What does this fold into?
Amino acid sequence: MTTARRSLADFLAIPYRFNVIAGDPGEGGYVVEYPDLPGCLTQIESLDDLVAMANDVREVWIEAAYELDLEIPEPSYPETYSGKFNVRLPRSLHRQLAEQAAADGVSLNQHVVALLAAGNAVRAVVARNGHGYAASSIGTPPEADDTVLAREMASVAS
It folds into this structure.
């Protein structure tokens, strides 16, 4: 038994998230892309055009896919994560984190979230600068003493 296909109006009513990417400095403009709709993107000059152009390109993409009888994917929602997960760690690390949180006057949860966010930011910068050392070392020339770099990495990690 086959399931009836949704109507075009049903597909057009589905909300999809989109990304807005700023153009190169000096050139201006923006790119609007729908990550769930392959190849669905447009370029705009001003943010004033954002809503109208984003809706227009999405509608044209869905209409074309519908007419060609192509699959129209369901939207993905990154916010479906609950924000909760359990982590098992050594008791000594648990105690150390709890003591640091108490010293800072924040909950253990807030302290761990701040540490994870900081570590994630450092990791992103290291990946972007391509040098394999911490964000605080970005200005350090590659030929810098390894001891200096190790000290900076340790200070970021703590």
User: Anything to note?
Assistant: The chain has a mean pLDDT of 81.
